[in-house]
Structures are given as structure tokens and as C-alpha cells.
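Good morning C.,

I know you're traveling, so I'll keep this short. The sequence:
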Amino acid sequence: MSDSYLGNSSLKKIGISIPFTEENVLEYKKCSEEPIYFIDNYCHIVTLDHGIQKFKLFDCQKEKINLIHKERRVIIMESRQAGKTTTAAAYILWYTLFQADKNVAILANKDKTAREILSRYQLMYEHLPLWMQQGVKTWNKGDIELENNSKVFTAATTTAGIRSKSVNLLYIDEAAIIPNNIADAFFTSVYPVVSAGQTTKILITSTPLGYNHFWKFWNDAEHGRNGFVPLFIPYWKIPGRDERWAEEQRRVLGDVKYNQEVLCKFLGSALTLIRSDIIEQMSYIEPIYQKEGLDLYEMPEKNHSYVIVADTAKGVGGDYSAFVIVDITEVPYRVVGKYRDNNIAPMLYPSVI
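The C-alpha cells, ready to paste straight into the viewer:
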């Protein structure tokens, strides 16, 4: 009778015992205690130039692994094609292989993208020696379960993606790509549940894409307001990426894409009234009052003059009906409040104003 899982000789099925040598025992213990050692010596990746080879971590990737391992909430910003998802997949492999009863959710803007990340996990797993593997209970494109009862599943970033599921580690890939309306609903309903645990971990990685929810999370992390530890990895920390490489990227991508995808600058629309570099200097401020979409940064004051600038939408969960309250009593004018709701009907919106 075969010891492999469903005829896959690279996977061990459950209930199979493989004798350990003394060296195996020492290696297993060292790997279980040191994620970087495990990844450097036992994880494999596919490269464009050399095919499948060992995953030799760069120094910046080791810094990333150490931070993810040490902290509960981490937000990482780096440029495109810098190994964000591969490094995350390697840590998730260590996390589920050497710890029992762990549930990991891999989320992306599309389910297909999340499954691609899981496929990297699966490739690494299939190249582990059988004596190091857990037996495999489930091995699908969208979810896996190991003999130690640790599980990994994928989903799109929606409120339904992980509703009613217990999650020990939540990984959100390319968070900036997720549409704002979906991100708002997700973080409002799902994030508090995951973050409530005493040992749960949340990892967010992305390249910037304008002033959206990822920018807010990053800005709050930098100012110590949301419990996340930020890590920015500039392009020049990746071996082979020097000034010559950067200049070539500038010529190929153009200035706007280069600033965003290589330099990791938060850029708004190219035709905004206020220059993007000015917006970048502005820091998000926590409101002093919040209720049903209304945020107030200052309470109303007697004898002050205010202006409301409003816009309406269909109220069907897409674009937002919104208004901004500006104190025009003295120069410079100040934004003192705002409102946004994508479900309020246009007929009811005037009563809110």
C-alpha cells in the first residue's frame, strides 16, 4: 500500500510513520525554532532563470520574517516583484508545519490571486523531505489541511470570505488593490474579530495605489495609532537593484508609475487640484466623534461660519454619498467634519445633511 497522498509521491499521507535519524531530530528541532533557518535550507521556489531552486533569503527578507514572527500585526510596503507573497508563503508554511491546530487565511482582491499564493506554499511543501512533512488530509487549489490539524484556505477579500471561521493568521496580499467600498465593509466586520485574539497574527503587504485604505492603515501604523508595526523595504535593498536598474524602470514605466511602484510613493490622480506631494505630507487625524458615517474633528462653535460641500450617489453599495464640513470663519479654512455612506437612498440624504 502506498505511503503517498493520492499517488503524489512528494506528499506523505496521514498515519504514516517515518523513522528519524539523530540528524533528522536535530534538524527538525532547529527548523521548528528558527523560521529563517528552515526557509533558507528547506524551502524551494521557481525562478525565471534557474527553474526550481532553494529559496535563499535576502537580508531584507530575513528582516521581514523576523518582524512577522515577533509581532502580531505587521504592515509591509515594498515595490512590485520584490518577493512579498513568496516570503509570506514561506512563513505560512513554517507556521502551519511546526504548530498544530492553526488556521491561516490567505486573502487577495481576487480568489484566483489568493490561490496563486497557496500554490507557492504547495510547491515548497512538495519539496520538503518526507520525514519533515505532516501527513496530508486535504490538498486542493483553494485549501489544504495537515495531519496536525493546521489548515490554510484562500478567499477574496470580502466580508463573506472568512465569516464564521476561526483564523489564527490572516494574510492580506496587495491590500491597496482592494476597492475602497469592499475594504471598508471587510475591515469593519472581519478585522475586529481576528484582532481580538491574544495570539492571532495579521499581515498586510502591498505596493501603494493612491490615497486609500492602505494609505490610512500605513499612516496610522507610522503614528502608532492602530497597533500595526510598519516596515518599508526600498528597492535598493533587493540585490541587483541599483540606480541603473531604477533609471531603466523610470524609462519603461514613466514618472508616475515609477514613483508609485518602485519608490512606493502614495500618489493621487495625476490631475488632482492639490499636488500629490502636498497630500503626502498630510497626516490622518482621528475624529473626536463618529456616528453612522459622520466623522467630526471639531465640535460646532457658536458664531462660527460653516460651509457644506455635498455629492450624492445611488445608494446601492457602490459609490458614496458624501459631504465635507468646512469652517470658514478665518483663514486658513479647516475641514472639521465629513460624512460618507454608500447605502443611503438619495431621497433620504437631504435629511441627513
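Safe travels,
E.
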